[in-house]
# Entry
Amino acid sequence: MSEASGAAAGAFRVNSLTGLDRADAVEGRVLWDAPRSIWNMAMLAMALVLGPLTFSGSALAVFLVTSAVTLCAGHSVGFHRRLIHRSFDCPKWLERLLVWLGTMVGMGGPIWTIRLHDSRDWAQRQPDCHWFLRHAKPLAIDGFYYLNFRLQLARPPGFDPGPGIGDDRFYRFLDRYWMLQQVPIALVLYLLGGWSWVVWGVPVRVAACTTMHWFISYFAHTRGPQDWSVDGAVIQAYNVPVMAIPTMGESWHSNHHAFPSSARHGLYPGQIDLGYRFIQLLALFGLASNIRLPANLPARPGITPLTARALSAASDRQAETLAAKARDDGRP
# Structure
C-alpha cells in the first residue's frame, strides 16, 4: 500500500470504496457518457443561444440567487461537506433538503456524485493514475472530456455508500431522476417571471455551474499556491484564490486534500469560505453540530506542510506526528 493510500484512513479515509487492495487506478478505458454528454451539451447550447435573447436585470438576479443557493447550501455543504465527508452533523430532514439542492445544481444525483468523487480522490492519491484523472491535457481538451466522457477502470474499487445513503429511498430517487429535478424550479420561475427567468434559472445556471466545476477542478489539480502536500500522491491539490467566492470556498483545494474531513476549507487569514460560514449559521440555529476542523481532528500521517503558516490551522497532535516522522526519517 502506498503512503498516499495509507494516509486515507480513519477520519481521512475515502468513505465509500471497498476492495482497494485489489483495485488499480491506472488501467482503464474512456467511454462516451451519452446521457450526461447530451444533457451537458443541451444545457450549454440553450445557454449560449437563448441566454442573450432573454437577458434582463431580473433574469440575471435569478441566475445569481439560484446559483448561490444551489452551489453553497446544495453542492458545497449538502453534497460535499455533509454527505461525502461527514464533516458535521445535522438533522436528517435538513440533510435531505441540502442534498436536493445539491442535485438541483444539475451535475448528477447524490449516490453517483459520491462514487465519482471518492473514486477520483482515491486514484489521485496513488503513486500513479489514469490520464483521464490527471488533468494533464490542454484546457479545452480536458473540458471536452470532462463534460462528455467517463472513465471505466479495468479493476475499479468496490462501492458501498453505507447506511443512510445507499438505502435511502429519497436519495435513490434523486439519483435516478436527477435531470427531472429542474422541472419544479422551472415551473415556479415561469409563473413568477416568464421564460426569461426559466432560461437564466435553469439552462444558463446549470451550464455555468457545471462548466465552472470542471474549470476549478482543472486548476485546483494543476497549479497554484499550496500549504500542504500529500505524500506519495501522483496528483497534488492547489488553492485557486480568485475563485473562492464563486465556489463557496471549495477552491481552497490544497487545504481540503490535507484535511478532507474538515468542514472548513479556507483555513488561513484572508481565505473566504462561504460554505463554512453557512455551516456556522446552521450551528447558530442549532441545526449543525460536531463540526470537524483540523484543530479537533485526529493527527493525519502522510501529509507535509509547505509553508510556515501551515501548522497554525492544525492540532498540536498533528505537529507531534510530523515531528515523529522527521525523527524517523533522520531529520532534525
